[in-house]
Amino acid sequence: MTTWKERHDAAVRKQDAAQQAYREATDERAQALLDGEAELGSQSAVARELGVTRATINRAINALKKRS
What we know:
Elements: H1 4-40, H2 43-50, H3 54-67
Helix pairs in contact: 1-2, 1-3, 2-3
C-alpha cells in the first residue's frame, strides 16, 4: 500500500510527463504545418487542405516561432 504523499508525487510525475508530451506534440504539429506551408505555398492552402481556418494555422506556427 502506498501513502497519500507517494500517490501525490506519482501523480505529479505523470502530469509533468503528460505536459512534456503535449508540448512536444504541439511543436511537431506546428512544424508539420510549416512544412505544409512550404509545400502548398500558403497558410490558406494548408487550412483548406485540413478543413480549418487560416487563423488556426497561423496561431500554431506563431506559438512555435515564439518558443524557438
